[in-house]
Amino acid sequence: MKKLSLFLLPVIIAFTLSSCGPQYSKGTQGAGIGAAGGAIAGQAIGRSTEATLIGAAVGTLLGYIVGNEMDKYDRQQLNQTYEYAPSGQPTSWHNPDNGNSYQVVPQPAYTQPSQPDRPCRKAEILATIDGRTEKTYTTACRNSVGQWVLQN
Question: 79 and 65, same structural domain?
């Protein structure tokens, strides 16, 4: 039971941070999502409390970096990827303003039973920022005007 509660603590904290309203920056929201993903990955790979905590810490950092570093150009490119890229096929771009580069592999679109008219897609993002390459995962859903919006 102790191991389960140590696993759930970072996940609960991450989901709480990532579900916060607009008063939090994209970096903070990305950190929350990254922490949750990292904790799950750490537990799945290492099957120990230490691996879960390390995964949460690494995920927090990666999520913050991607959430904070993506500017308008990058978000436009990401939106184009969600809209047009075939599932499982990588799409890449290099930001001419900040030198960052991204490779995104989108997954098939799906809908949730509670919102069947709102498709969503998950994607793996490989971001190279200041020469460091990091991997993170995102989910975007269409809003009421048809734009893809990253989910918290």
Answer: no
Q: Are 63 and 37 in contact (CB under 8 A)?
A: yes
Nearest C-alpha neighbor of 124 from the set 110, 138, 141, 108: 138
Q: Which of 8-17, 125-134, 143-152 has the lowest mean pLDDT?
A: 8-17
Q: Specify whether the CB–CB gap between 14 and 42 falls below 8 A.
A: no
Same structural domain, 40 and 97: no
- Rounded to two decimals, the pTM is 0.55
Name the residue range of residue 136's domain.
Answer: 72-150
- pLDDT surpassing 70 at residue 138: yes
Same domain, 9 and 49: yes
